[in-house]
Amino acid sequence: MQKDNLMKGAIPGVIAGYLFLAYAGGGMQDMIGGMVNLNDFGGFILHIIFSAIIGALYTGVFVPAVKLGNPMITIVIGGLIYGLIWWILGGNLIMPLVAGGDVFAFGLGPSLYGHIIFGHAVAFMVAARD
Question: How far apart are CA 23 and CA 113, in angstroms?
Answer without folding.
Answer: 8
